[in-house]
Amino acid sequence: MIPGQRGTVEVGYGAGWDPRAAATVGPLSTAEAASLDAAGEPYAVILKRPGRPHPEAVLHVAWSHHYLGIWRYDEHGRRWREHDLRRLDPEWLFLIHEQTWTYASPQTAEFAPEAGRTTLELSPGKENARWTEEKRGDRGSSSSTLTAVPSERRRLPVPAFGDWTMALEGPCVLTDAAPAAPAPDTRRPWDPPAGLRPRHLDAMFTPGTVFTPQYDEAAPRTVEPSRTLGTLHLPSGRIVACDPCAYELPQPLTVSVPPGDYVMDVASVSHPSGYEDMTFTMEETTAVRLLISQRPTVGWEMALTAGQDPRLLRERHFYGFDVDTATGCFTDAALARDSCRRFDRSFTETDPLVEHSQNGALIATVRAQDGSAALIAFALSGDGSYPVWIGRDAAGEVTCFVVDALELTRAELMTPAQGT
Question: Which one of 112, 149, 247, 285 has the lowest number of neighbouring Cβ atoms within 10 Å?
Answer without folding.
Answer: 247
